[in-house]
UniProtKB/TrEMBL annotation:
Annotated ranges, domain CBS: 655-711
Predominant subcellular localization, coarse grouping: membrane
Any one GO MF annotation of this record: voltage-gated chloride channel activity
Protein name: Chloride channel protein
Topological type in the membrane: Multi-pass membrane protein
SUPFAM superfamilies linked to this entry: CBS-domain pair, Clc chloride channel
Protein family per UniProt: Belongs to the chloride channel (TC 2.A.49) family.
Superkingdom of the organism of origin: Eukaryota
Coiled coil ranges: none
One family name in Pfam for this protein: Voltage_CLC
């Protein structure tokens, strides 16, 4: 049974979970009624299998895109040092398998044995640029170092600026503002026959411009999965820009990671693929099932941890143009910020092998277990060969530089993740502690804590300390627990260190919660003012009542009064000018509630009757059309029905005749559960006699919860 047709959802409005669930149930019921025929059974089988087909295609495409991004990033990262002779498309690790990087001042910084050979196939920029001096026609000494440093900085700067320009120019939220043809804009509605203009918001603050390809994307994905719509955020343009920009920004050497953006990329793929199937194209609630699976695929390809990816997905996961002068100033500031950060990154990272490494490479070496004969870029020390002081100093410098640059880099307008930088910072600290414990065990083996080691020199494994430090740091940053522990187990392919890792994760989260209750993604959601309803948060309601939150000033439609197309248009345009109203309650003169109609539905209905501004529209609460409208709009439904629905002025088709209601004396905790557990888009407040009092929509409720949090911390 139909309970109101829904049309399109506008950006930053909540989807109607209940309506989408009912619509899908009606669709399944129609399919099951046709199972008597062979064709009907095939259609049922295809319907049950289409979800698996989509996630399979999404998983394959995400893996391909991730492979291309990683290989491109490796090539561009090594391009800052040189290129492969005869195969310029190969990164250094593929051009010279098994070769070891030789950097300026490596004797003082990394203590690399001088006997290792250079790779003959790899040509550095000091070999290419300027006059040839020294043996073999290459630069030597300080001149070689200056050329390599200059080329490293210029290429890194070019990569970062290109990534930022692509992000700002191609994925500004203002590029994705679309308005469908609307009856409220028909020329017959304007004064003196003149065409009316697009409604301009006069109340409330203008929404800030978002850049869809910037940052990790996880806060926005959490917002979308919670039931809000952000047009363009999961589209093809964003997918292209995020993928290309991610490879460029990571290759530039900025302190950021690929893991968070992979979740965004995977959700873009999931959204695009699912739109080829009507089951998901016409149902926003069902499509979010695919997006949840895609988010898990993004984490899986980032870490090679499918179980951890699934757990991470479970555990975490119109607009106004600014004035031209402000836009140009903002553009200039963003480009300047990217240039400054890249220059600082290049200056601080070039002289130290550990700061110059890519994030994944650094974490790999810091977590490595040292066996006899291993070197691992200087992180391995032995009692008969090394003193830990210089190595600890080099890693400590990397800890400070990487930590400071991560704080700055995560906020600039380039695709950026926080996973690998956080793991790198924690691994640096853990490796320092591990090396210190190794030195103590070698020099004071008689201490009680080392008695169980006996004469074993490798009793203390510094890589384990690095792994524990990495897990604790990432837990403190993102506040993930179970999924993070599983990811670490899958990365190390070992369960030997379950207890220390889980303890470190819990301690890291506890300490971080004591300092700041919100994790990095929740803080980004707050700063970006995204309409996200946190289902994990607990609130103290105090003396507030439902009537304190309910919006009693929302315009209503009286069904027993004359409602012409023009008067309804005036109500709609006034509501759109505020930017806060999502619909109109339908009541009688004695305030008896009959139903609810959304602004998008009313706008679409008025568009169909734009030629008759003085015609009367009516709402029939007894409307009982036994049909399930799965189409995206009334027009497509009309075509499917063979044109039998002949009264376009009867707007009963769009009414929600059974809106969720709550009495004014109910506790606020009940309202919270309705929004969280039922996925309500709006709730009607009634008095003890059932008369209409006001409306609480989801955005109003989220704003109220924000005020509660501010009062709590005041």
């Amino acid at each position: 049974r139909v309970n109101g047709v829904r049309v399109w959802y506008s950006s930053f409005t909540s989807i109607d979970w209940l309506h989408d669930a009912i619509k899908d149930s009606s669709r399944i019921l129609r399919l099951r009624k046709k199972r008597t025929s062979f064709r009907g059974r095939l259609r049922n089988l295809a319907d049950r299998s289409v979800g698996w087909l989509i996630v399979t295609v999404v998983g394959f495409l995400v893996a391909v895109i991730a492979f291309l991004v990683v290989r491109s990033e490796q090539l561009l990262f090594d391009l800052k040092e040189g290129y492969c002779i005869g195969a310029w498309w190969k990164a250094k690790r593929f051009c010279c398998p098994g070769s070891v990087k030789l950097l300026p001042f490596q004797t003082y910084v990394t203590f690399k044995p001088p006997t290792e050979d250079m790779c003959e196939q790899w040509r550095t920029w000091s070999d290419v640029l300027g006059p040839r001096v020294g043996p073999g026609g290459s630069h030597v000494g300080d001149e070689s170092w200056v050329i390599e440093y200059a080329s490293y900085t210029v290429i890194a700067l070019a990569l970062a600026v290109t990534s930022s320009i692509l992000t700002i120019k191609l994925t500004a939220s203002t590029r994705f503002v679309t308005r469908k043809d609307s009856g409220v804009l028909g020329p017959a509605f304007g004064p003196d026959g003149n065409e009316t203009k697009e409604p301009v918001a006069q109340g409330g603050a203008p929404r800030k411009v978002l850049y869809f390809a910037s940052g990790s994307g996880i806060p926005e994905i959490k917002t979308i999965l919670s039931g809000f719509v952000i047009h363009g955020y999961l589209g093809g343009v964003t997918l292209f820009t995020k993928s290309v920009g991610l490879a460029l920004s990571v290759a530039s050497g900025l302190s950021l990671g690929k893991e968070g953006p992979f979740v965004h990329i995977a959700c873009c793929v999931g959204n695009i693929v699912s739109r080829f199937f009507a089951k998901y194209e016409n149902n926003e609630g069902k499509r979010r099932e695919i997006l949840s699976a895609a988010a898990a695929a993004g984490v899986a390809v980032a870490f090679g941890a499918p179980i951890g990816g699934v757990l991470f997905s479970l555990e975490e996961v119109s607009y106004f143009f600014p004035p031209k002068v402000m836009w140009r100033s903002f553009w200039c500031a963003m480009i300047a910020a990217v240039i400054i950060v890249t220059l600082v990154t290049s200056a601080l990272c070039f002289l130290n092998l550990y700061t110059r490494m890519g994030g994944t490479e650094l974490v790999y070496y810091l977590l490595a277990e040292c066996r006899p004969g291993d070197y691992h870029e200087g992180v391995c020390i032995y009692p008969d060969r090394n003193v830990p002081g210089p190595i600890v100093s080099a890693i400590a410098l990397a800890l400070i530089v990487k930590g400071a640059l991560t704080i700055v880099t995560f906020g600039i307008k380039v695709p950026a993740g926080i996973f690998i930088p956080s793991l790198g910072v924690g691994a640096c600290m853990g490796r320092i502690v591990g090396i210190g414990m190794q030195w103590l065990q070698w020099n004071y083996p008689h201490w009680r804590i080392f008695r169980s080691c006996g004469d074993e020199d490798r009793c203390v494994i510094a890589g384990v300390y690095a792994m524990v430090g990495a897990a604790a740091t990432l837990s403190g940053v993102t506040r993930t627990t179970v999924s993070l522990a599983v990811i670490m187990f899958e990365l190390t392919k070992s369960l030997s260190y379950v207890v220390p890792i889980m303890l470190a994760v819990l301690v890291g989260k506890t300490v971080a919660d004591a300092i700041e209750p919100k994790g990095i993604y929740d803080l980004v959601i707050t700063l970006a003012q995204l309409p996200y309803l946190d289902h994990k948060q607990e609130y103290l309601w105090g003396a507030y009542q439902i009537t304190d939150i309910a919006d009693k000033s929302v315009a209503v439609i009286h069904s027993d009064q004359e409602n012409t197309v023009k008067t309804l248009r005036d109500k709609l345009q006034a509501a759109m000018s505020t930017g806060m109203v999502e619909g109109f309650p339908l009541i009688t003169s004695d305030r008896k509630l009959l139903g609810y109609i959304g602004t998008n539905e009313l706008e679409h209905a008025l568009a169909l009757v734009a030629d008759g501004p003085d015609a009367e529209c009516h709402f029939n609460p007894a409307f009982n059309r036994r049909r399930s409208f799965d189409a995206a709009s009334f027009t497509s439904s009309l075509n499917e029905d063979g044109g039998n629905y002949t009264d376009p002025f009867d707007f009963s088709l769009y009414m929600d005749r059974a809106p969720i209601c709550v009495p004014s004396h109910a506790p606020l905790a009940l309202v919270q559960q309705m929004f969280v557990k039922l996925g309500a888009r709006y709730i009607i407040v009634t008095d003890a006699n059932g008369a209409y009092v006001g409306v609480i929509d989801k955005k109003t409720w989220i704003a109220f919860l924000g005020e509660l949090e501010e009062e709590k911390h005041a």
